[in-house]
Amino acid sequence: MSSLTGTVAFFDLGGTLASVALSPDGDRIADLTVYADVPEVLADLRRRGARGGIVSDPGPVPHEEVDRALEEAGLRSLLDPDLLVYDRKDSPGVFEQAVARAGAVDRALFVGEDAGERAHALRAGLLVAPHPRLAVAVLEGDHLRYLRVSVPPAHAGEDWRAALGDLPLLPLHVTGRTGTTVHAIGTTSAAARLGDLGLEVDRLGAEDEPLTADLYLLRDDRRVDSGFLVPDGDRRPPSATAPAAPAVLAATDDGLLVAVPAGRSVEAFHGGATRHGHDLKLSPIAWPAGADRTGTGLAAAPAAAVPATVTPAEREVLDAGIRPEHLTEHLARYTGAAPARGGGAVITSRHVRHPDNRAAVTALVADLARIGRGRFLVRRHAFPHEGRRPENVEAEFPGRGLDGVVLVTAHMDSTGARQPDYRPEADPAPGADDDASGVAGVLAAAEVFGTLDGASGAPRRTVRFVLFNAEEQGLVGSSAYARDQARLGTPIVAVLQMDMIGWDSGSGRTFELHAGFSGSQAVQQRSLALARTVAALVAQVSPALPAPQLYPHDGEVDPGEARSDHHSFQAVGYPACLVSEDLFAGPGPSAPPADMNPQYHLPSDVSIDAGYAADIARLVTAAAWVTATR
């Protein structure tokens, strides 16, 4: 065991060492649960002679409240009490302050998920790492880089994941038709060891690039539409010639792997022809990557569809409780057409960089608290992104007699990035269809669940209504939330995501269900079972809708895979599906073309077809109720 005497490791708190849930007002820690692998990391550092501390921004939460939560969680005893630093991390100053507290040290390290914060720490003279898993290796002097690790076809069926799990390697994304390609951050020594083990290793980008950059997958470049060997093909991202343009590390069938440096937003590279869910931020995922958590006892979702039948009484409640006027009312408060609850703000944009985003969070907290009438546990879930601390909103309806958790979800943020010269900090982005329609659907589902529950009194699983932030930036909020739940071992049996359910310009009222996940056939099969439960309920609760277009179909790749927040849960092993309007052509060559909203990502996205959206929201609510009670 190497000695790290004379070194100190500072960690961010939420999302790095522990799951932190905030009170509805955001000024109190409602729950702090240490991740299972963290105590051993901190104990290992201590055995090697390193001291441990925290550099964290608690926002409006009093410092003594943070200390209390650390003590109750058993984390404070693993840290040096003199090295707990609470302040904003928007400059090198707080990191210089932390090092000064540590006194004379040979090396100091900061571990945190936000690339901007790591850049400030680096300028203050600290070493940096994006995850506790890599802390010892970096303190020992190893370097980090992006890696693409592929399993040779002859060994694809073998148990190779365990070998990767023993190395200083941080998986970010699993791809390939058989889930045998892993994009990761790893040390230089890990890269060499992978080659020794017979794996194919591509070193992407420059050494130490992961220290101050985030890795994104950018899709829908011009090459996709131009075709094979056509001179007009162009795989460069928009603004590729601009100053501080992102480094393109690799061009793949999935899209461009791009390292976006700290201080730059991925939205600066928004192409005019990009389709729904074109950006994906590659964030650390639970390991083994793509593992089927439903088969390990963490969740009990069946491999076959849940018996999808509602009683006449349930159908009556669903029909009365989710009507067009209900969605119209909810929609108005989040698109600026009417004042929001929770302060009366008029929300003109929900973009993560617009000041109204925080007003939308406050309004959602107020709406869910009102709907729950004391039965919901409403909390905020903060996460770092591009130097900010956006928040997801969660309302939990505690279960009664059945194990497992069912999630009904949508994303709350919006963008107008297809508008020329769009200014996200100031310009309107009402996002009525994308995705205030889904937000309205989740709020309507929450209202109806209370009525259904009161009328039936049947045993029920815990149900959560969750609104994710920063989806438009690459599924960032849902990824942070899903990784949190996986590390906590939450037994999630189903995730039902509504994203863009309000546009229908054709006569067929077509809509889609997406369950594809190439990273794990087991996860995909369980996601398909969930989607089939939804499909089986159409004739019972929303007979004006046709049968859904269900993906994947006949071996085709699901065009909606990894393009909405359901993917964040599949990536950590949970069954999940996306319910949407007709975003993609297919499935199959004889299917109708896509019916894409022409106002997508424009400030002119101001209205929806409320009847169509209500039919989809009613269907999703019925599927959630059936999954929670059968």
Write the layout of secondary structure elements.
Blueprint: E1 7-11, E2 18-22, E3 29-34, H1 38-47, E4 51-56, H2 63-72, E5 84-86, H3 93-102, E6 107-111, H4 115-123, E7 127-129, H5 135-139, E8 144-150, H6 161-165, E9 169-175, E10 181-187, H7 188-196, E11 200-204, E12 213-218, H8 222-226, E13 247-251, E14 256-261, E15 279-281, H9 312-321, H10 324-335, H11 356-372, E16 377-382, E17 391-397, E18 401-411, H12 432-456, E19 460-468, H13 476-488, E20 492-498, E21 511-514, H14 521-536, H15 538-541, E22 549-551, H16 566-570, E23 576-581, H17 610-629
Parallel strand pairs: 1-4, 1-6, 4-5, 6-7, 18-19, 18-20, 20-23, 21-22
Antiparallel strand pairs: 2-3, 8-10, 8-11, 9-10, 12-14, 12-15, 13-14, 16-17, 17-19, 21-23
Give an account of the 3D structure:
The chain is of the alpha/beta class and 630 residues long. Among the domains are: 7-137, 3-Layer(aba) Sandwich (Rossmann fold), CATH 3.40.50.1000; 293-505 and 564-584 and 597-629, Zn peptidases (Aminopeptidase). It has helices spanning 38-47, 63-72, 93-102, 115-123, 135-139, 161-165, 188-196, 222-226, 312-321, 324-335, 356-372, 432-456, 476-488, 521-536, 538-541, 566-570, 610-629, and strands at 7-11, 18-22, 29-34, 51-56, 84-86, 107-111, 127-129, 144-150, 169-175, 181-187, 200-204, 213-218, 247-251, 256-261, 279-281, 377-382, 391-397, 401-411, 460-468, 492-498, 511-514, 549-551, 576-581. An 8-stranded mixed beta sheet has the order 16-17-19-18-20-23-21-22, with helices on both faces. Strands 5-4-1-6-7 form a 5-stranded parallel beta sheet. The longest helix has 25 residues, at 432-456. It starts with 6 loop residues before the first strand and ends with a helix. GO terms for molecular function: metalloexopeptidase activity. This is Peptidase family M28. InterPro entries: HAD-like_sf, HAD_sf, M28_fam, Peptidase_M28. Residues 414-435 are annotated as: Disordered.
